[in-house]
Structure formats: structure tokens, C-alpha cells
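QA checklist item 7 of 12: single-chain prediction sanity check.
[x] sequence parsed
[x] length recorded as 152
[x] structure emitted
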Amino acid sequence: MIVINKSQLKKIIKKALIYQVFSNIDQLLEEADISHRSLSYGTGRAENWFNDAYNNNEDIRLSSLTKVLAYISPFEGCPLEKLICRKSLRYGGLLNTISDEEEESITTFLQSDKDLLQDLIGDLGVIESKKKLTIEELHVLKNLRKINEVNE
């Protein structure tokens, strides 16, 4: 049986959630033809602030996210309901549920939702390719991939 460290799993789910929200913001910006630089200036930040936060998968403050939303919401093509998508909400729900699970039952729980597991592995793969996972987090990702293989 594959046992996953709950604390490390929660950290990488949080990284996947941040990645998903940033990707959604980036897509909204692209659809509205707004540059990262313009967004950074429009929120009172240095010209590379958003680009750095996006590339480094930073967990920005709620006040910063609110400034981003306030800046992009008036632009046509930026419906805010695209920002927090179903996948983001599922990651948030997974964080809530994992908190209540015993480490011994996490594997079984993850196997119960194959689509969510595959989405998580996919997003973490992108974060991994950017070299933004620690050694411990890479170990958890490896175990998630093993769980997925057993699931197929």
C-alpha cells in the first residue's frame, strides 16, 4: 500500500490550486489583451510583479488578488466567474477533505476520484517542469503517479 504524507500532500495541492488560479488569470488577461506588465502597473506594483508571481507560483495575499480582480473586471472578455473554475473549487474541497483523513486512508480516498487525481497530477507536472517542487513534494507526486497507475 502506498502511504502519502498528509502534510506534504496538502502543500502540493495548495501549489496546484495556486497554479490553477494564476493560469485562469493569465487566460483572462490574454482574452482581454492585457499584458502582465499592464496588470502590474495597474495594481500599483513593479512592472514584473505579476509575471514573477505567476512564474514562481507565489501564494499572493488576498489584498493583492483583490487588486488584480478590481483591475481586470472592467475589461471586456474578463468575466470573473472564469477565475475560480470548477477545478480550483475541487482542489479547495480536496484540501478540506484531506485535513480530516487519516494518512492510511488517503490513498483509498484519492483512488475514489480518478478525474481529480489525474487533474492534480497534470497540474503538478507543470509545476514540476518549472522546478518549483521540493524533494519531499516530488516524492509525493511520484506516489500520486503510482496511485494513478494502480487506478487504471
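[x] summary fact logged: The chain has two domains: 6-17+85-151, 25-82.
[ ] second reviewer sign-off
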